[in-house]
Amino acid sequence: MRDGRAASDSAPPRRRRRRATKRRRRSVPQKHAAEYTRGDTHAELLTKRRALKKDLAALHPTKRDKVLAHLHGGERRDLAKARLKNLKEDDRHADHSNLTEYQKQSLHKRRKKPNNALQRQMHRRETKRLRNAMEAADVGEILHSHAAGLVEAETDMERTTQLTQRSLKNEHLEENVARNVYDLKLTDYGPYKLRYDRSGRHSLLAGAKGHVSIIDQHTLGLKTEFFLPGDIVRDACFLHDGSMLAVSQRQCVYVYDGASGAEVHRMDGHRRVGGMAFLPYHWLLATVGDNGVLQYQDTSTGSLVSQHRTKMGPCGAVRQNPFNSVVHLGHTNGTVTLWSPSSSEYLVKMLCHKGSPITSLAIDRSGRYMATGGGDSKVKIFDLRTYKELHSYNTYGGAPTCVDISQTGILGVGHGCHTTFWRPEALRTKMKQPYMKHQLSGNGPLESLRFRPFEDVCGIGHAGGISSIVIPGSGEPNLDSMEHFTNPYADAKQRREGEVRSLLEKLTPEMISLDPDAVGGIEESNLIQRQQRLRDVAEEADARKAADKEARKHKKEKKKMRGRGKIAKKLRRKQQNIVDEGMLKLKELREEERAERERQTLNDDGDDEGEEAPAALKRFF
Questions:
Q1: What pLDDT is attached to residue 414?
Q2: pLDDT band with cut points at 50, 70 and 90 for residue 45
Q3: Are 459 and 450 in contact (CB under 8 A)?
Q4: In angstroms, what CA-CA distances link 218 with 177, 215, 277, 495?
Q5: Contact predicate 224/263, CB 8 Å
Q6: Are the C-beta atoms of residues 283 and 503 closer than 8 Å to each other?
Q7: What are phi and psi of 451, to 5 degrees?
Q8: How far apart are CA 178 and CA 200, in angstroms?
């Protein structure tokens, strides 16, 4: 012991300090690692969570809804509660028939004993999600500092429809906004159609007699212009951005470069196309023409994705739903059909204008309302959640030839040489007075009407050229620069990076459906409903099988007259396989006849004279 003590005293001081530190660390009581969450214990987390819930309850209802929207995402609260209830019902009625007694006892013990580690982890994640949702709502208020404002009348005697574009430009608008009110007189190649790209930076002018040009709306300068002599232009639209455009000409569709106007590609399969729509999230160009065939072309690979025969004749009214990318087609028989690339039949068919053709249609940004214009001089509003008509508006001066809905929900209608604009509330309830009006005398009927994205501007194409007017409150004031191809101030590098990201995040055509929330979701976990659905599917399959069998039984045989009728042979062949009393008697009769012939043959063989006679004389015996 003395030698050991001396040895420890003679050790270096650093080594002795390290030993003392180890002894002190062992003396500190150890705590469970799960009790700490980034420096907070479980009790502190619960305290913070209660404080966050109190702050959430004290918020204004509008802001509280924003926080809950960030917290739950696109999922509805009632659906989440119903799914949780169904999961509990499944656990309560779980099938344990294939488990042993030991496994059942273990499962019962695990259910009775709470999992404290899992509860602490769930509390930590829920607290973090709630804190992030409240911070996201605060950041949204900071970034979205602008709100769309409409023109309001000061007194009851005034009407906003009395406000003209001239008075707006000279008295009320700023200089940079007033420059958007102009008229381009192009009478040689009209009538013109007008389109904007997703950012609103470029506008596409397509003259029916072969004139195509692109204008930069920031500088009002001509970016590209080319002529198609001896050809006509049926329709035109931008592709993913302003650098590419598709033009439907006399026979087929051509793709041109937006910078030089050079022809890039020719799609021979798209014949006599009257309407086009580009799906930006799927990079699909949807076209339909005089033959009534809807085609989807992948512009990133150049391949034809699918083609469907509508069987309803020519179609010129084509729009895509910005909410779920379903293509809406308006037909000449007054119906509107909804299509997706993965279905050979239409998803929904709606009779919108009985006895009159569909001249134009539009869908709002949320995908809830659809406006259709028909040959009966009516504009009807439909709820796409129930597929029922809400109300309608009458037009004067002619049938509505062009309809569009702005980003904020303002409805624009072009009829004859007049344009009428309705407030966003006009989609939900019927209003008596419109919001604004504009007249283009001598240039009717109007060819196209489109709102410019992120600006209070509306472009109108007609026989005399192009007209640009200002509609206050029609554009979205807050720009989301992270959305692909929606930043009008993007430079060349940002456009290249955005194109690459868009191609990497491209959605497949099979993901287009009426309910986009169902893609990537979880099926409702209700055991009773699932079993009932399986029984319904089985009963439907059995009924269909029985109906097909009955139809085959009563199916009329085809009479093929190729020299002789074959139906008799078929019936005779079928009759041979039937064994009944008559068939048994016939077989007995044939057996008796065969036996009689054999006896007769034996009697004939017993005659000796016939055998001895020469062969030439046998016929006499």
A1: 96
A2: confident
A3: yes
A4: 11, 9, 25, 17
A5: no
A6: yes
A7: -85, 140
A8: 17
Mean pLDDT over residues 290-299, rounded? 94
Over residues 257-286, the pLDDT tens digits come to 999 999 999 999 999 999 999 999 999 999
Q: pLDDT: is 441 or 571 the higher one?
A: 441
Query: Would you say 434 and 421 are in contact if contact means Cβ atoms under 8 Å apart?
Result: yes
Q: Which two tokens stand for residue 53?
A: 């819930």
Q: What value does the mean pLDDT take over residues 481-509?
A: 91
- Region 514-522: mean pLDDT is 71
Cis? peptide before 509, omega within 30° of 0: no
Paired tokens of 554: 């009563």
pLDDT by residue (tens digit) across 89-106? 777 777 777 788 888 888
Interacting residues of 157 by C-beta distance below 8 A, sequence separation 6+: none
Beta bridge partners of 403: 413
Query: Do residues 177 and 165 make contact, with C-beta atoms less than 8 angstroms apart?
Result: no
The one-letter amino acid at 565: G
Place of tokens 């439909």: 382
CB atoms within 10 A of CB 101: 7
Beta carbons within 8 Å of 155's beta carbon, 6+ residues apart: none
Does the pTM surpass 0.70? The reply is no
Residues 6+ apart with CB under 8 A from 496: none
- Give the pLDDT mean for 390-394: 96
The owner of tokens 């420890």 is 8
Rounded CA gap, 364 and 122, in Å?
39
- Torsion (CA) 36, 41, 47, 51 in degrees, nearest 10: -40
Q: Does the structure show a pLDDT above 70 at 605? A: no
**Spatial CA neighbour of 163 closest among 434, 410, 429:** 434
Residues counted in the chain = 621
Task: Report residue 247 CA to chain centroid gap.
Answer: 24
Structure tokens at 470: 């200002």
β-partners of residue 289 are: 273
CA 137 to chain centroid, in Å, comes to 28
Task: Provide the 8-state DSSP code for 471.
Answer: -
